[in-house]
């Protein structure tokens, strides 16, 4: 027995020592990370600002996925607003002689690429050079890289230039085969988020809106590529249709690339451009390091706040995505902060919970009574994402923003046939007539369907009401362009769903003008998580499981799985867009 207690005590001591060592190691990592972040960066003469594979452009601080030590596992995440500021700064920085775009798979949304491309176009007016190099180049990367004065391609590389397409997956037969029942209530013939559960093929309405949307986006992007490469639209269409970019020699022949060279030859070419000697070192500086060289300078007591709303809209108070209670707290903080003179709400959301969207809209309406509230749309501002914009003084949209989708739906999955096929059945005992109007095994009662239909219709009318108030249009006018239809930003401007086509910077500038500010600081909300906060976020068991599953099956598939399994999402009226569009 004495030996037993001795062994137990030894194990306890060992565990305590290991915990102490881990804690010490952790503190040192945090301290090291803090010192690294605070270290000043000096920009050397003849530097080249470089956009490379280690750069991930994000729209919101909540998208900054890091490990518990506050260090990104692979890439450096940079906010698109800060990226544009860096390019603007580089334009007049005598130490920056040019920009080198060296990226094969650009991790950024289409509106972010649009804004960065425009900023680089403006940078070129300084007379400084912009070069680009690629190996096996994605379409989105080439869209950015084509802005360069010269585009260089690896002799064994290629450019995936193919146009846009979308593939809609249908689950109706699958659900019927395996005994999964799905009760769907929706308003709007274009509200195709639920179409995969109702049909085995694409509806004419959905095909129409997808075709219009894809063609709007492709016309905008392809015309810019063709103009940069100095070819007419007919030539460019032939090149894309024939996939000439996939073959290096064809890329050169059809002017997608200017020369086929190795990466080391490309670096030598830049050195020659800078008049450097053979023994001189080529100095490249990344976007993130360049931003560190000037951030937090020229601070002002008066601020324009940018509140980022990125992701799906949900009830609750979690950090990632848009959780109503968390955003209500942010909005109230901005409302009470006397240094905040105006607010820009940057929306990058396909929507989500109707109830959560309504809560956020109300608080934004209260904020607007005290301070200018300007809206900026990113890649998506649809359904609930568009709904919360209805508190705006003015709405800015990017040309390629997916917006509108003014429609509502509810999905009620149940597994009665599946359960019965596997020997599972249930009986219900209840106190009232509709205590069990919905059951995951027995489905939804006729009265439950009627109730949900009334809820969906009532929510749609409330949605349209707020749109009529903000856009100064009648119910009939909004209903005609609503019905769940998604529009490009360009068309949204034409039909009056937004006020201006412009970037986040345009929205910030207008907000400052409306508040009468001449000198101001731009403050980002929500604040980036500290390392200690991130620990507790990452150690949550449910979050760990969700992240693992999401990484394995992909974000879009995970969201479908959530609709089927997450009890928080069942029996809920939704304002949500059905798909995403990327130019990869």
From TrEMBL:
<feature type="domain" description="Peptidase S49">
    <location>
        <begin position="123"/>
        <end position="265"/>
    </location>
</feature>
<keyword id="KW-1133">Transmembrane helix</keyword>
<comment type="similarity">
    <text>Belongs to the peptidase S49 family.</text>
</comment>
<keyword id="KW-0645">Protease</keyword>
<dbReference type="InterPro" id="IPR004634">
    <property type="entry name" value="Pept_S49_pIV"/>
</dbReference>
<keyword id="KW-0378">Hydrolase</keyword>
<keyword id="KW-0812">Transmembrane</keyword>
<dbReference type="InterPro" id="IPR047272">
    <property type="entry name" value="S49_SppA_C"/>
</dbReference>
<feature type="transmembrane region" description="Helical">
    <location>
        <begin position="12"/>
        <end position="35"/>
    </location>
</feature>
<dbReference type="Pfam" id="PF01343">
    <property type="entry name" value="Peptidase_S49"/>
</dbReference>
<keyword id="KW-0720">Serine protease</keyword>
<dbReference type="InterPro" id="IPR047217">
    <property type="entry name" value="S49_SppA_67K_type_N"/>
</dbReference>
<dbReference type="InterPro" id="IPR029045">
    <property type="entry name" value="ClpP/crotonase-like_dom_sf"/>
</dbReference>
<keyword id="KW-0472">Membrane</keyword>
<feature type="domain" description="Peptidase S49">
    <location>
        <begin position="366"/>
        <end position="517"/>
    </location>
</feature>
<dbReference type="InterPro" id="IPR002142">
    <property type="entry name" value="Peptidase_S49"/>
</dbReference>
<dbReference type="InterPro" id="IPR004635">
    <property type="entry name" value="Pept_S49_SppA"/>
</dbReference>
<protein>
    <submittedName>
        <fullName>Signal peptide peptidase SppA</fullName>
    </submittedName>
</protein>
């Amino acid at each position: 027995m004495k030996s037993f207690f001795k062994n137990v005590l030894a194990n306890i001591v060992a565990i305590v020592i290991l915990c102490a060592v881990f804690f010490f190691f952790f503190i040192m990592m945090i301290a090291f990370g803090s010192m690294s972040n605070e270290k000043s960066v000096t920009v050397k003469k003849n530097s080249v600002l470089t956009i490379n594979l280690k750069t991930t452009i994000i729209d919101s601080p909540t998208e900054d996925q890091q490990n518990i030590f506050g260090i990104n596992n692979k890439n450096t995440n940079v906010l698109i607003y800060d990226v544009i500021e860096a390019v603007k700064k580089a334009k007049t920085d005598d130490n920056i002689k040019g920009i080198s775009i060296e990226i094969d798979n650009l991790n950024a949304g289409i509106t972010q690429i649009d804004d960065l491309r425009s900023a680089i176009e403006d940078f070129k007016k300084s007379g400084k050079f912009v070069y680009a190099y690629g190996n096996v180049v994605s379409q989105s990367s080439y869209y950015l890289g084509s802005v360069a004065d010269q585009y260089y391609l690896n002799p064994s590389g290629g450019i995936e230039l193919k146009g846009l397409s979308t593939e809609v997956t249908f689950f109706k037969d699958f659900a019927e085969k395996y005994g999964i029942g799905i009760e769907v209530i929706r308003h709007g013939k274009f509200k195709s988020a639920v179409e995969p559960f109702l049909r085995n093929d694409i509806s004419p309405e959905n095909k129409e809106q997808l075709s219009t949307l894809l063609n709007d986006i492709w016309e905008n992007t392809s015309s810019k590529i063709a103009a940069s490469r100095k070819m007419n639209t007919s030539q460019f269409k032939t090149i894309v249709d024939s996939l000439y970019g996939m073959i290096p020699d064809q890329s050169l022949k059809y002017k997608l690339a200017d020369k086929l060279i190795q990466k080391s030859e490309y670096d030598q070419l830049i050195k020659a451009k800078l008049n450097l000697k053979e023994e001189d070192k080529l100095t490249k500086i990344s976007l993130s390091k360049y931003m560190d060289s000037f951030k937090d300078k020229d601070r002002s007591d008066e601020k324009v706040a940018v509140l980022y709303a990125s992701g799906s809209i949900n009830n609750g108070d979690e950090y990632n995505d848009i959780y109503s209670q968390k955003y209500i707290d942010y909005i109230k903080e901005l409302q009470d902060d006397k240094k905040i003179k105006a607010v820009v709400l940057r929306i990058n959301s396909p929507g989500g919970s109707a109830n959560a969207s309504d809560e956020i809209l109300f608080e934004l309406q209260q904020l607007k009574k005290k301070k200018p509230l300007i809206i900026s749309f990113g890649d998506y501002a649809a359904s609930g994402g568009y709904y919360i914009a209805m508190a705006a003084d003015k709405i800015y949209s990017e040309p390629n923003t997916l917006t509108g989708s003014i429609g509502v739906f509810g999905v009620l999955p149940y597994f009665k046939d599946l359960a019965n096929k596997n020997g599972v059945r249930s009986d219900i005992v209840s106190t009232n007539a509709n205590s069990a109007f919905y059951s995951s095994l027995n489905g939804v009662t006729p009265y439950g369907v009627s109730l949900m239909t009334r809820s969906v219709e009532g929510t749609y009318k409330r949605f349209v009401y707020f749109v009529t108030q903000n856009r100064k249009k009648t119910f009939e006018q909004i209903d005609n362009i609503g019905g769940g239809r998604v529009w490009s930003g360009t068309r949204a401007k034409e039909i009056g769903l937004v006020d201006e086509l412009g970037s986040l910077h345009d929205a910030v500038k207008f907000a400052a003008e409306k508040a009468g500010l001449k000198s101001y600081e731009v403050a980002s909300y929500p604040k980036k998580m500290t390392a200690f906060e991130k620990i507790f976020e990452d150690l949550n068991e449910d979050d760990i499981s969700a992240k693992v599953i999401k990484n394995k099956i992909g974000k879009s598939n995970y969201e479908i799985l959530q609709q089927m399994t997450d009890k928080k999402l069942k029996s809920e009226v939704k304002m949500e867009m059905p798909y995403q569009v990327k130019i990869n």
